[in-house]
Amino acid sequence: MQVYGAIHPGSHLSDNFAHLGEGCIIAFPRTALFGEEFISVGAGTMIAPWSTLSAGYGPGVPGDHAVELNIGRRCTIGLRSGLVAHERITIGDDVFFGQDVFVTDSNHGYESLDTPIGRQFGSTSPIEVGDQSWIGHGAVLLAGARVGRHAIVAAGAVVRDEVPDFTIAAGVPARVVSRTDGAG
Ligand SMILES: CC(C)(COP(=O)(O)OP(=O)(O)OC[C@H]1O[C@@H](n2cnc3c(N)ncnc32)[C@H](O)[C@@H]1OP(=O)(O)O)[C@@H](O)C(=O)NCCC(=O)NCCS
């Protein structure tokens, strides 16, 4: 099942994607997969089993503006990770995710007191992760998170704004605790 269920260039479902680079693989089983026409996965990238990749608000429901989920080349996305794009998520090249990492560029709305929050659409803000960065186990990247180049997000951190290039951020909310380049 794992062999036949995997998605890679030339496999079943591969034509549905915006782009699948040579040698990339989206392992089986997956938790959820929709909006493939807005999803690009770069060459040599591995997306581990039980992951979620979604672009748009539901199968065939892209929302009221453009949506993109772009994962670069030679990345590893760990087991049970989720990337949920309602606007734009961009992961650079050579990025490594631990397991159980969750990334979403959107929130539910809550302004209508008569409508369940889960049925209200809210604000979105794009997410970026720079080349060569490492996202630790169980980290969460919320709408507007921008992780720079060669940066680290510590295990369990929750990022909602900027983690600059060459820094290490930890905690909830994530704060810079160290650097990867030894400066400062
Ligand atoms: C961030 C990390 C890489 C350590 O980086 P480091 O530069 O060696 O940092 P240090 O251990 O010197 O810690 C610096 C500070 O951050 C804190 N810190 C480190 N990791 C933390 C975490 N995950 N959550 C909260 N605080 C953390 C330390 O307690 C320390 O605080 P202090 O200065 O008040 O004592 C490591 O702790 C980590 O989270 N690794 C992720 C491992 C992982 O997820 N592996 C599986 C995926 S492949």
Euclidean distance between termini CA atoms: 50 Å
Can you write the helix and strand succession as a string? HEEEEEEEEEEEEEEEEEEEEEEE
CATH class: Mainly Beta
Bound heterogens, unique: coenzyme A
Question: Can you tell me the CATH architecture?
Answer: 3 Solenoid
Any low-confidence stretches, pLDDT <50, length ≥5? none
Number of helices: 1
Largest sheet: 7 strands, parallel
pLDDT averaged residue by residue: 95
Number of strands: 23
Instruction: Report the portion of residues in β strands.
Output: 35-45%
Radius of gyration: 16 Å
- Going by CATH, the homologous superfamily would be Hexapeptide repeat proteins
Percentage of residues in helical conformation: under 10%
Which structural category do the helix and sheet elements fall into? mainly beta
Number of domains: 1
Q: What is the general shape? A: globular
Strand order of the largest sheet: 1-4-7-10-15-18-21
Give your account of this protein's structure.
With 184 residues, this protein is mostly beta strands. The mean pLDDT is 95. The protein starts with a helix and ends in a 5-residue tail after the last strand. A seven-stranded parallel β-sheet has the order 1-4-7-10-15-18-21, with no helix packed on it. Strands 3-6-9-12-17-20 form a six-stranded parallel β-sheet, with no helix packed on it. It is globular and about 50 Å long. It is built from one helix and 23 strands. The structure holds coenzyme A.
